[in-house]
Amino acid sequence: MTGEVRNIHDALASFTEHWQPRRLVSINDYDVKVVKVQGEFTWHSHPETDELFLVISGELVIQLRAGDVTLGPGDVYVVPRGVEHCPRADGEVAAILIEPQGTVNTGDTPSARTAQLRELD
Fold it and tell me: Where does the record place the region Disordered (predicted)?
């Protein structure tokens, strides 16, 4: 996908499913993903990697055992590798995730919310 212009808003408008990330682009060994979320996710961690959240719209709460982090549009937060967390959104949130290629959305805790990374249509 190098050399191709991708629009974040067009990408987000192309799907409606929650907790089903889509690859926007890849850079080196990382995927830049767009995702829509609503409700509570699964408590999990990523033992091998940090996870970056960038909120485009809505309000996202990253629940941590040490206390919650609340993100609004334009806010960025990095969950350090190995830190257990559980994203939650009371209303719909659009976000970008940046993670190494092959990172599973539920990390070390497979659940009904575990998703295969999808390509944009």
Answer: 102-121
CA atoms of 79 and 118, how far apart (whole Å):
23
- Going by DSSP bridges, is the β-strand pair 60-64/51-57 parallel, antiparallel, or unpaired? unpaired
Write down the pTM of the prediction: 0.92
Residue pair 30/101 in contact by the 8 Å Cβ criterion: yes
What span, in angstroms and rounded, lies between the C-alpha atoms of 18 and 100?
21
- Write down the residue that tokens 């999990």 correspond to: 44
Going along the chain from its start, the domains and CATH numbers come out as: 8-100 (2.60.120.10)
User: How is residue 32 written in tokens?
Assistant: 């830049």
Q: Which residue has the tokens 């990408």?
A: 11
Tokens of 39: 């409700």
Give the pLDDT mean for 82-94.
97
